[in-house]
Structure formats: C-alpha cells, structure tokens
C-alpha cells in the first residue's frame, strides 16, 4: 500500500470494499487537508458517486433484514443526496467522523461511520463499512445506529464477530469523546465553508 500526501484541492476517492476484496461504493472527496495519516475531505450534496443496490433491483433497506447481507449486490451510478459532508479519515482508526451540513451550509450533526481501515492507495483511502454506526448531536448526546443490521451482518458472514467487537469498542471510545465535548466533537470545523472556486469532486471514468 502507498502512503501519499495529498494536497488541498486534490480529488481522492474513498472506496468501500467487501470482505472478499470486491469494491462496492466509491465516494469522491475534495481534499481539505492531509498529513499522510489523517485525511480531511469534502463531499458536497448532489456529487455523483458509485452506490450499490441488491442484484434484484431493490434498495438495501427495501429488503427484509435477513436478506440484506445475503442477496448479491451490484454497483450503480448514484448521487450523494440532501446533505454535504466533511469527513475526517484517520488511517489507524476504526471509524471516520462525518460533519453534516444542510443546503445553506448550516452544521447539523456528526455521524460516525464505524469502519475497518485498509490503508491507502494512490487514489484514496480504502475501508470496509462496519455496518454499526454512532450518531452524535450538538451538545454531545450520542446513540448507536444499525445495531440489528450489524448483528445480522455477522450471521451472514459480512463481518466477523471479532470485527464487530472491535467496532463496538471504537464506538464506545467515540461516545466518550462526544459526551465529554472533546475533539472532534468540540465545535472544530462546525463553521466549515468550502472554497467557492472548487468544483465538486469527480469520479474517474470506467468504474461501472
């Protein structure tokens, strides 16, 4: 794996891999800062992404819980909808922290995507989505998200029991930071505004 230092304004692509090594979603990010181990990237609303659906055409949440991790998935062209996100992705952490902003640029809340880190490629960070997540409101109140899906993902072989244990520990660490109002839940970057001269980040050709 490579360890590039990306410059502000660069576009990188965050890839979400599956345990078998196949690549699922692709999210392009505009680089705000990168020190070689921690990337801060921007994904504005309506940016084209590569998403995924179940192979039978249903959206993930349209399927019953017991089918969601057992029906094959396919990649599809999609858009990042409704909100813009600023993402802090640390190479050695089992999570990435997302700041959510509405269409007017007002900070809404944090969402912590629990993930298995897989390092970097020259084009961006690679992660496995851990299914289980943490939502944090302004003021530090936090809650688990998708606990039922995480348990089902273990039964279906999507993640291992050991990985889920590690992801839960990461969620507890994140929750303690949020409750104490410590970084990154101390107001840092809640007033972020992107450079108005930067276009939305784009995806390379040939991904589908």
From TrEMBL:
Q: Recite the UniProt keywords alphabetically.
A: Hydrolase
What protein name does the entry list?
DUF402 domain-containing protein
Q: Which SUPFAM superfamilies match?
A: FomD-like
Q: Give the InterPro entries listed for this entry.
A: DUF402, FomD-like_sf, Ntdp-like
Molecular function terms in GO for this entry?
Answer: hydrolase activity
Q: Which Pfam family, giving just one, matches this sequence? A: DUF402
- DUF402 domain: residues covered: 61-182
């Amino acid at each position: 794996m490579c360890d590039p230092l990306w410059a502000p304004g660069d576009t990188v692509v965050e890839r979400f891999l599956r345990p078998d090594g196949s690549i699922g979603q692709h999210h392009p990010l505009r680089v705000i800062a990168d020190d070689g181990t921690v990337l801060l990237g921007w994904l504005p609303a309506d940016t084209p992404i590569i998403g995924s659906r179940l192979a039978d055409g249903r959206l993930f949440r349209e399927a019953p819980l017991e089918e969601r991790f057992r029906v094959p998935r396919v990649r599809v062209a999609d858009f990042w909808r409704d909100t813009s996100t600023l993402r802090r992705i640390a190479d050695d952490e089992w999570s990435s922290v997302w700041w959510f902003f509405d269409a007017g640029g007002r900070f809404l809340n944090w969402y912590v995507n629990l993930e298995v880190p897989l390092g970097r490629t020259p084009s961006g960070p690679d992660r496995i989505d851990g299914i289980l997540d943490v939502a944090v409101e302004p003021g530090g109140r936090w809650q688990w998200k998708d606990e039922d899906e995480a348990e089902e993902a273990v039964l279906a072989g999507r993640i291992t029991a050991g990985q889920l244990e590690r992801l839960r520990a990461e969620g507890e660490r994140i929750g303690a930071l949020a409750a104490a109002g410590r970084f990154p839940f101390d107001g840092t970057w809640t007033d972020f505004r992107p450079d108005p001269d930067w276009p939305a980040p784009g995806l390379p050709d040939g991904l589908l």
